[in-house]
Design a protein that fits this description.
- Keywords: Heme, Iron, Metal-binding.
- Residues 76-162, 191-282 form the Cytochrome c domain.
- By secondary structure, this protein is mainly alpha-helical.
- The chain is 50% helix and 1% strand.
- The chain contains 13 helices and two strands, in the order ααααααααααββααα.
- It has helices spanning 2-34, 47-64, 75-88, 90-93, 102-106, 117-120, 123-132, 148-160, 166-172, 193-202, 242-250, 252-255, 268-278; strands spanning 233-234, 238-239.
- A hairpin with a 3-residue loop joins strand 1 (233-234) and strand 2.
């Protein structure tokens, strides 16, 4: 019967796809487990891999930035953005007449020059990239390290950047100090645990601690943070309240001068969110 033949065709096609998928996954696992794949930064991606990842990144940014509202990008923002760019961006991306620093030149993928960024991206997209970063590229999420006003100032400057010759760029970035930094957002107690989970990665806490729910290497430089919410003490003697955990996150040396935990310049708002997440670990 024709219906039986159709079912046989679909079953055969499904079995073929399944076998191909299993064979592909097995082959990929063998390549990775054998160590054949070269992870050295001196070994470039295959061109088709680079092209595929680049296209996926572009499509993702366009999708996620579609509802970003763009403020007025005036001259004041451009001037401020030039100094923020000088302090935080030129090291990896270079500028008109200024080369990247050595670590920027050697990264894979190479951080692209931003002198033409405004020709390739809309302001809303530039803001989204700057705020959220790009995973597996070395591009950080500046939301946790720059004020909102600085983020938009950077966007305003990048829009202006294609028009700048080297002397103009040098003149704009010659000022020795930036304008007054906008005040950090006030902490909202008891905090946002989901935002705190992200903040843990943005302050590199997962580089030293194993944190449940946070992707990272299995390193034990610091004590694993599982069950932190039910511990009685922090640093061996400080009662484990949220207020004390915020103090410990922001200035551990004030509590224990001999601790190896560094001061990470965590804002109060971010520390409150981090503490809110850590206290969910029970």
């Amino acid at each position: 019967m024709p219906s039986n033949r159709v079912r046989l065709i679909f079953k055969t096609a499904a079995a073929t796809v399944l076998i191909a998928a299993v064979a592909g996954a097995t082959g990929a696992a063998l390549v990775l487990k054998s160590g054949w794949y070269n992870v050295a930064a001196t070994d470039q991606h295959f061109q088709f891999v680079h092209t595929l990842l680049e296209q996926g990144m572009r499509d993702s940014v366009r999708f996620h930035a579609r509802e970003v509202a763009v403020p007025r990008l005036d001259a004041a923002r451009i001037a401020q953005g030039a100094l923020v760019y000088r302090d935080h961006c030129v090291q990896c991306h270079g500028a008109p007449g200024v080369a990247q620093q050595d670590f920027g030149k050697s990264m894979q993928p190479v951080p692209g020059p931003l002198v033409d960024a405004a020709r390739r991206w809309q302001p809303a997209q530039l803001y989204w990239i700057t705020k959220n970063g790009i995973k597996m590229s070395g591009m950080p999420a500046w939301e946790y390290h720059l004020a909102e006003d600085d983020l938009w100032s950077l966007v305003a400057f990048m829009v202006k950047l294609p028009e700048l010759a080297p002397p103009a760029y040098a003149a704009m970035t010659a000022s020795s100090a930036r304008a007054a930094v906008a005040p950090a957002p006030r902490a909202r107690w008891p905090g946002n645990p989901q935002r705190g989970r992200i903040a843990l990665t943005q302050y590199a806490c997962n580089a030293c601690h194993v944190v449940p729910g946070v992707t990272g290497p299995e390193t034990y430089v610091g004590r694993p943070l599982d069950g932190l919410g039910k511990r009685r003490f922090i640093a061996g003697h400080l009662p484990n309240t949220q207020e004390n955990l915020v103090r410990w996150i922001r200035d551990p040396h004030a509590i224990d001068p001999l601790t190896a935990m560094p001061v990470q310049d965590v804002s109060e708002a971010d520390a409150v969110d981090i503490s809110a997440y850590l206290h969910t670990l029970r």
